[in-house]
Amino acid sequence: YPSGNLAIIITRQRDQLICIVQEDERRTAKIRALFQSDGRSTCYYPNGDEWINMSIQGGQYLDQAGSRVRRWMWSNLLPGPHVPLSPIFISLNRHVGVRILAQDKIFVSFLAMGRQAKFNMGTKVQVSAASQLPPPAQLGEDELLLLAFRVRILQLFDRMRGCLNFPSSVQWNKMQPPMYLMSQAVKILELCMAADISDELRSYIKAIVN
Q: Where is pLDDT greater, at 137 or 140?
């Protein structure tokens, strides 16, 4: 950066390359993006929350509340329906931007003092039938209960924030939880329906997340 702080690091770990984009900070610089040559990449908001996450199957774009805004699948997957990628451009800060056009066209651009450097961190990873992810295993009773209690705790924290932000209001208790918590609750209920558990436990978990 013009400040002299290190902006981009490219290193090799075993058989893959890793590109790290750091924030313009002298001490304890935050990681703003991480790109790996095996097809996995993540970009982060300034507060450290996940912004964009990509794998060899595709990727997703999240807003700052944690809700998924967009999801896509790479076009080189095996034949079948898939959600195509619309080009994405984000600015990590005033000097570094990321443009995502395809799996092998992921560009990191650095612009400062009238000069520009551009790195293509994309990679063409073919997904064969042997490398397809196996169907998710059914979760057991303990795992489902842990997931349900996690969502419940997050819901309670959200209510506490509402109470602190609006201490004189009687409406905060009627506010709906964030969309990402509601979607997680629905997902847990779907996992319960697919799991081999008793109806009693299924009802108990439903009561926890609702």
A: 140
- C-alpha 69/C-alpha 107 separation (Å) is 21
DSSP SS3 for 205: helix
Average pLDDT, the chain: 81
Per-residue HEC secondary structure of 146-167 comes to HHHHHHHHHHHHHHHHHHHHCC
Beta-carbon count within 10 A of 9 CB: 12
CA pair distance 2, 25, nearest whole angstrom:
11
Q: What span, in angstroms and rounded, lies between the C-alpha atoms of 90 and 26? A: 23
How far apart (Å, rounded) are the C-alpha atoms in residues 153 and 15?
41
**The pair of three-digit structure tokens given for residue 110, joined into one six-digit string:** 């650095």
DSSP-H helix ranges across the chain: 141-165, 179-194, 199-209
And the tokens for 104? 């092998």
The model carries a pTM of 0.58
pLDDT greater than 50 at residue 133 = no
Whether the Cβ atoms of residue 8 and residue 119 lie closer than 8 Å to each other: yes
